[in-house]
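Running this now, will post back.
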Amino acid sequence: MNRLNYSTKFALIASLIAIPLIMFAVSLSIQFHTSVEQVHKQQRGLQFLRLSTELIRGLENIRDNHVLAFLTHTGKLNFGFSETREQTLALIDKIEASPELYQQQDTQDFIRSLKVDVSTLRIAPGMEAVRLAHLFDNATLRVEKARSWRLLLNNKYRITSSSNPHVVTLLNFILNDMFRLSSPLGKARTYGTYFLTQHFVSSNGADAIDSSYQALNHEIKSLSIKLNSAKSTGQESRTSPNLSLVLRALKRTRNLLDDKLIQSLEQDYDPYLYYEAVSQDIEAVYVFIEEAFDIVDAILYKTYIDKINSLKIFYVSVLVIGFLFIYLFIGFFYSIQVNIKTLIHSADKVANGDYLSVISISSEDELKQLSLTMDNMRQQLHVREHKLKELSITDGLTNLRNRKYFDDTLEVDVAKSNRSNTPISLIMLDVDHFKSINDNYGHQAGDKCLIALSKLLSELVRRKGDVVARYGGEEFIILLPNADQEHAEALAELMRVSISQLSIKMENEDISFTASLGITTVIPTANFNHEKLISMADSALYMAKEQGRNRCIYKSLALNGI
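Update: finished.
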């Protein structure tokens, strides 16, 4: 059996029955999973549609309340503008807190812009001369943008592509029919309340009110036709929200317009009562919308459960058939068991760090190719381990050596200097006021400064054997074997001057900064503690900071007792 490849082995039994069954099972599985995922996606999308509809509702209230509060600016009427704005901002925060929804770029762009827009809305006294139509139309733009965003969500989650016609009908009611009521109802509430507070109606205002009246009439006729059609087909009584309530609300608002404003302006009619009456009618529209959402949600949930149950039945069937075939595959298992054990043993050796033992088996089938692939992987792991060792001694931001490398190298170089009786110098450098750079310009700007500084230090320290390392944060350290005090001080001063001349270009301005440097030199004796060298350089750096920064301080190291 070992001389046969896998195609031959499985062809003996599976070619006539197993392969067609597997292909059929995979095809059905993909269809089931796609169907389940589509319904689940529609369920998530429906929740986002509800959230976007709630946002539209808040924006409509902000539009009407802000226009009224802005134009009337009187304490006699409380239109709840501030409360409505805070509620809408809280809803925006809720959208931002939704990971799946807010990670979408179009949602981020819209919500960020909307949040700034709503947050900056204010009521300014003395602006009553601004045209009512101008304010209302500008505020309506926010509602239109929210509606466009809602349509994008609907397209993304393909909710209106549901196979259930009742779902499609209800969503079309929500997205199209109910939204068309926003403008005439909003104008009826805003324009009507405003003119009742002013006790007169201008010619332009009369035209606007009449336009709202005609629009409401048109929508009443359109919805009446749909209601009658639903009744005739029996759909109106089958899990449908009460469209009659919406029609009655529209008629009440239309009649209010006609009685209180169009026929004649009722001077002593309380504007706040009018405002509350129309607001209740608008609330009736949103009650209808919520009922429609609940029905769609229930339908999608039932569809989802049905599909999950179908999927379970499918998998049970596949398992039963699969168990029948297991017995046939046992023989193939024993034929490849030895080679698999060999590969496992070889993989364990690689896992334990043995990258030198070649992985090889005697089989001539696909397992042979697998062993060759594993051996290639072994060789690549050996190469990558070497690269990882290199990465472990390199600072990820600046590409300089890191503190671990510096500590190991310092101990070795101190021992060499002791044997050769030559001086060794250390320069410790710290960026002045680096925290202020991060606070004022951000951590990305701080990173740019550190990268530019690292490049400059690498250019200035050119001797073979010298080490420039990032010691931590904005601290750098330079190790100079076989360098006396004069050389170290001259190099440190060159560094200080060069750093002060650096200019990091940002979007709005250039950033410049300075650095303080501490220097020390020693010819180490036997048993010299290399950490003393670091401690003395750090002490010199501290003195440079204390004396005003942007300077180099040398501090000698006494060897007595070291």
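The chain is about 70% helix and 5% strand. More later if anyone needs it.
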